[in-house]
Design a protein that fits this description.
The protein has helices spanning about 10-20, 35-40, 60-70, 85-90, 105-120, 150-165, 170-180, 190-200, and strands spanning about 1-5, 25-30, 45-50, 75-80, 95-100, 125-130, 130-135, 140-145, 145, 205-210, 215. With about 220 residues, the protein is α/β, with parallel strands linked by helices. It has a five-stranded parallel beta sheet, sandwiched between helices. A four-stranded antiparallel beta sheet has the order 6-7-8-9, covered by helices on one side. β8 and β9 (about 145) form a beta hairpin. The chain is elongated.
Length: about 220
């Protein structure tokens, strides 16, 4: 899941990003509304964590424009206000959820996961193919009953392949879904991650490379 954190308090933004990355999200961070709109126009985010009081372009306007653009991103708005009127106003702009500062990080993660499930076609909590079983809730992988420890990126790549249900997934699509904007688009990181993933999955290769197209699970 790819998340855009829009927060002008830089220490808070980086703390949220670091925690979310630890939870397995690909996270980009910007500190003003103008940058938020630029990023949302370029990348397909699942969730935007949007502070309401932003410089350059107010969070309300960012939300309004994002919704008006037809982008499929879900908006979780952050605010210091606790009034019902403020929350109703934010939801009226098209925000999908509202979280008041200060908040518990565990609640932020739970709300992002819930919104992420709404931003993409629903999938079962357990994905299975080729003897591989991926539990999206427990974040566990087994193959033919054998537990396989994976890194966060390996897990994200495997989840995207399983979601595709046998259809090929391009390297570009994997970069977009599993990495943040800091990755070099010409890097070999997808190839390196795929090599490591295949090694961990063991003998009788299950991930197929389609030259010039991408990867798929048979």
């Amino acid at each position: 899941m790819r998340v855009l954190v829009v927060e002008d308090e830089e220490m808070l933004a980086e703390a949220m990003a670091e925690g979310l990355r630890h939870e397995g999200f690909a996270v980009d961070v910007v500190h003003d509304g103008a940058a938020a709109l630029e990023n949302a126009a370029v990348h397909a985010y699942d969730v935007m964590v949007l502070d309401r009081d932003l410089p350059l372009v107010h969070g309300d306007e960012v939300c309004r424009r994002t919704v008006a653009s037809g982008a499929e991103v879900r908006v979780l708005m952050l605010t210091v206000s606790t009034t019902v009127a403020e929350r109703v106003a934010g939801l009226g702009l098209g925000a999908d959820d509202y979280l008041t500062k200060p908040f518990a990080f565990a609640e932020l993660v739970a709300r992002i996961r819930a919104l992420g499930r709404r931003s993409r076609p629903a999938v079962p909590p357990v994905l299975e193919r080729g003897g591989i079983r991926l539990d999206t809730h427990l974040r566990q992988i087994t193959r033919d009953g054998r537990y396989i420890p994976l890194s966060r990126k390996e897990f994200a790549v495997l989840e995207e392949l399983l979601r595709a249900e046998g259809a090929p997934v391009s390297a570009e699509a994997l970069l977009e879904r599993a990495w943040d904007q800091n990755v070099d688009p010409f890097t070999t990181v997808v190839r390196v991650t795929m090599r490591s993933l295949r090694r961990k999955l063991g003998d009788e290769p299950v991930i197929e490379t389609l030259t010039g197209v991408g990867y798929r699970i048979r």
